Amino acid sequence: MPRITNASRDKLIARKAQIEARLRDFDAREQQRERKDDTRRKIIYGALAMEHADGHPDFAAVMERLLNRYVVRPGDRKLFDLPPREPDQDKGETGADIGVNEPETGALKQGMESA
């Protein structure tokens, strides 16, 4: 095995640092693309739900109840013209109370919290 000099070692270390930086840049770009794709999906879902709600009052009522239950930040509630939340507003409420099955609301709640 050839002997590695300090200069050769230094070059390899510099090259390794460049490669690691390029990998970090690549990962950051990939993460940004994934966030943009996720945002785009949410926009499309929202537009579809709004369009569907226009012609389906039952669906619109369920969406209103879901928004009222899961939109908790004051600024977000204002966007939907929802009244301020009371501290114990959702205690004891089940999915049946808002017109949907609980497993679906659990998935919705989990998705809303990660957004």
Q: How would you concisely characterize the structure shown here?
A:
By secondary structure, this protein is an all-alpha fold. It contains four helices and no strands. 3% of the residues are buried.
Description of the structure:
By secondary structure, the chain is an all-alpha fold. The protein folds into two domains: 1-55; 57-115, no CATH class. Helix content is 72%, strand content 0%. It contains four helices and no strands. The protein has helices spanning 6-55, 57-70, 74-79, 102-114. Helix 1 (6-55) packs across helix 2 (57-70). The radius of gyration is 25 Å and the shape is elongated. The chain starts with 5 loop residues before the first helix and ends with a helix. 3% of the residues are buried.
Task: Identify the notable features of this structure and list them briefly.
115 residues, mainly alpha
Shape: elongated
Low-confidence stretches: 102-107, 109-115
The number of distinct structural domains comes to 2
Distance N to C terminus = 54 Å
Whole-number average pLDDT?
84
SS-derived structural category: mainly alpha
By DSSP, the count of extended strands is: 0
What's the Cα radius of gyration?
25 Å
Question: Roughly how much helix do the residues carry, as a percent range?
Answer: over 70%
Largest sheet: none
